[in-house]
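User: Second chain of the day. Same drill as before.
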Amino acid sequence: MAPPVRYTQGRPAPVSFERLCGTCSRLFATSAALQRHRLSMHDSTKPPPARCGEVSANQRPPARSAPPLVPLVIGGGPCVSPLSRPSADGLRRPGGLPIFSVGRGPTSGPPSVRRGRPSANGVSSTGVDLSDESDGRAGVSRSADSSAARSSVTIPRSWSGHDGGGRVGHHDGGGHVGTAGSYGAFDDTADRPDVPVVGVRGSRWFEPQPGVPLPVRPRPLVGLPAARILAYYRAKGDMERTQPYVARDAARKPSKFNTPTLRKFRLFALSTGRCGLSNTARAEYWESVVAAEVAAVAGTGKLGPMQSAFDTAAKFVSSLKHEQDRFLHELRWRQTAIIIGEQTFTFYSRDLWEVAIDAILSAQQLTLFGQRRVRTDGSIIRTGTMDSDLFIAEQASVFQIHKLTPSDRVFVMAAQLYSDAALISWSGAHYIYAIRARLPNVQKGKSEWITVAYIPLVRSRHGAGSIEKERLRLLRNELLQRCMAVLLDQFAELSETGKTVNIPGRGTYLVIPRITLYAADMPEERHLQGLKIGLCHRPCSLCMIRKEECGEPRHNNEPAPDLRCVTETLTVQLEAASLYDANTGAGRRQQISDDFSATHNVPSLGAVHGLSTGCKNLYRIFGFDSLHVWKLGILRNLGGLVGNLVESLAKGGNSLFGTAENALIGINERLLHMSRRVRADLYPPGYLVPSGVTQPTLTGSDWRYAVMHFPGMVAGAVGRRPDESSAPFAGKLRRSPYGSRSFQEEERRARVVAQRLQNRKRKRSGRSPGGKNATRPRAGQWRKADESHSSAGDAESVNHRWATTDDEDVVPPADRSGVDSKAFADLFPAMSPADAVLEVMCRAAALSGKLSGDNRVEQAHQTEEEATAIASDAAEFISRYVAILFGPLHTPKAHRLASHLLAELLDRGNLTEADTSINEGLHGRCKAMYDRSNKHVSTFTAQMMRSEQTLACVLAEAATERREDVERGRALLDAAAAEFVAPGPFTEVAVDADVSVPEGREALSDDSGTSDENSVARGAALGAERAATGARHGGGGRRRSLSALRVRGSRSTVAELSTMNGGALAGLGEAVGADDDQMVYVANSLSFLATFEWGASSVQQRLYAARSNHGKPFYDFFRFTDDSSATGCSYGRALLAINGINGVARRGVVVQRLALAEKDPKCVRTRFGGTQLRWEVDETTSFPTLSFVPLDNVQRLELVEPDFASLCARHSLFATPSNTPNTVEERALQRWFVNNFYSWTSAKLKEL
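Assistant: Same format as last time:
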């Protein structure tokens, strides 16, 4: 029976995951390798081998001496390679990392250990000799508050695996059992008297004494994956080649910009255009300022601020360069020469630990501890990192190790990282590869991403073949891990021991750093983890599912795939790395690649404790990136699946209302007629196209805003046409760029012909086509100018730089649909394919809103029940609805959404922190700075680093000065208000202002209600000065002279307006209560404060009622309060925006009223919360009823779409409200749908 688990002051020790063959005494890293060995080399009917470290007498291996570990850990001498190991004949031969098997027990270790004597080769992971009798504090030195400093002994013990019975623990994600505070395994030798203690008075047997606590083991111990990985990368010598980017002597000079005026000159020169002025422009700027100063002080004999500080333009330009050096020196930027083979790369970085500590010490408000938040009903709520499951568990693990008494002051400093590359040149030759960090403990309002490193560029040769591309891929992978190791070196070391830091206002704390999030897209995630991307058997980073099982529906009794084991994967990666460095073991490396989909690149993140030890969160820290997983992964595939399904259903026949190609054209053209409020970019050929149609590059925001309209686009347009159908049919091919394969083929032929003509002209003239002013066509040349609503920079990362075959986003072929299967009939009972497609699109739109946090309270707390419901909807959507209707999606993104969404919601508390959209938007700043560089491959990265860091520093200093100005202005205003009492409110009020304001406060607010700090400071100071001046002169202060009451807008009589819009305004006089000869002041739009029924904050919206806006009519639908309605609100379409009538201010909207339509129980959109509307027709005019709605009664805008299903059933596939006859019968039959999926408010990044 296995001995019970005993904790040494709450600290179980690590385990060596070596498997021992009981027959031949060979050691194996994994159980799978041992199983293969036993099946191939020995009789498979033999009993299972004994546990590692507990072999029986007849299976005892011969005594061996432990391999020396000092060269590996401390780098060795000049003649000893850290990647060599002793052979059987005693000579050192090239090899990989030695097997960490020191102290496996009295029966398997060296003879010295079995006899109770200290081993000659016993060292800690820092190289300290464990056999030193003079100093019992063998191991790593820690801070004063560290628990290891209180220990006087170092105890190497024999480690055992997880296959003992009757032990309680938790799984680390791959079958290995550990405790919440352990480093991944149990130490079952604490109660065994036969284990010797080394380093205490020579050698003796350890005998636990009653009342005496067991000695504390130091960290790290030999064999921990974190210590092995840290030693592996330190042996590369990169840290020895790291030096400051700016020499200390170059930054010692004080700044010459020592006055507020000079700092404003500096701010303008270094921040204009987001990248600063060029050197030539800086000199010209000096000349302009000096010329203005000379003219201003002419005849006085004085010098201006610029001329007195810098007498020449060269000194001004040189001082600006010195400012850049000074900022970079203060930020402690470093440069590292990373040598790989015969190539040397320069890596620019900051120390992540120093960046985090600087942020902690300079923070105005801190949150040191994470706390579980529970409602009164007992439900757990999560909002962000500090109350998420991952941080709470990590904090408990740290406290169990480092907080030995309640009085110990320890806290976990969480760090979040992001890395990705972005193209910055039109040619695609240059990209910027930045690493950014964020600290959830620091509260500064909204969280800020700080750039901490720039990974160097690796260029490929033009026309490189497959061998060269493979070499570049391996080179880039190794360079990425080496750069991360340099960035995390001190952070990883202190993550094990911690460091004492004196925090202002709080006292001294032992700070334990941990990484809680790494925001990256999926290719970047796999590279950082050292896993394969394409053509691998196990594409998921979290579990061991096979690629062909991704996206497949799972039965109720089918077990979930095993989670990926952190320790086992890192162990085999270290083995593969040692074999690769020794240029041997190709078969074993291929075996590791097949079993684990792992490469020989050891993830440098594994050197950080808490990722490879303790809670083992190495794979959990990579969050759910909704940009690349949902928007650019699932939704993009969904568009191709719909297009394939349309063509598949039309084989051997036609679609419901036309041919397959016409059906796709009609579906994509519907987006043009939805509303002017559509925020998706209208690129041809559209979003729902088959696999063969080429699409332009659409950003994540394009797909996110387009999915809201997918239900209206596909309604009634997908399906097979019955033979006896009499519905309208579009048989003639429509010439349109939207969804048309034929149109693209014609365009391709035209481009080929045009290119041939240009080539002929080039041969004759010898000049490039188009001449000097030739421009390249934009990707969005088909997009209309008035519908530019996309957010730039959403998905501009470059992933092709890895030159890998990534087949994860390939759309399945069109013949995998299950429309005719029994599963389809069970999932969609008595439903046609058109209704089934509509239901799937409604589910996609609803799920997208839940993932983005649309139309809910901002920063709303999410309960575990809500998270479970969202994850269940996502799993059903992928595994059932998409898999049955379109065929299963065998992609890792679909699997991540279906299987691991709940874990992400519990570990993170939200889906916004791991979203890479925010960092993708920061790439635009890098592109602006690239234009200012010389674009040379060896220097542009350093130039961009200097510009970006300088810009951040000068903006931070300017913000500090503005805050100080605001505080001084408010102090002056408060002092003046204490001496002077302002008069009462003004009596004259302008129409476009609710209240009048005293002078000095005129610039405090704009039309949207926002404030500017500069305006606050200037207005407060000016108002205080004028108030004080009025008090000194005994006056009551000067009032603002207001003109007479004015009403703005174009003037027309009621009779003239009644004849517009084809007679739709015939009842205008009765609606507004005015005679035909009275004058109405009409505006194109009105601004109002929108309120949302779901409790979100009010925002400023603008309601349009314009006959022509950018050449097209713009009539908004909106929601308003209505006492006559049973629900208290009604819907309508604005026809007139009125500011006043007959010179009297009367702001409101003339609206065409909409009423609720009769509910259809079979309507799919109604079941998903949609509201169907119809016109409320006035019997006297036969047009929709008109009403006047005061602006105060307007609640918010509403997106109302035509019911295209009924519209095309009555007319044709391409019928729209604009091309159908405006008759009384048509108005009575016309139906509308309120798009309840439209995003009016979205979740924002939680303020930290």
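The two ends are 51 Å apart (CA to CA).

User: Great, on to the next one.
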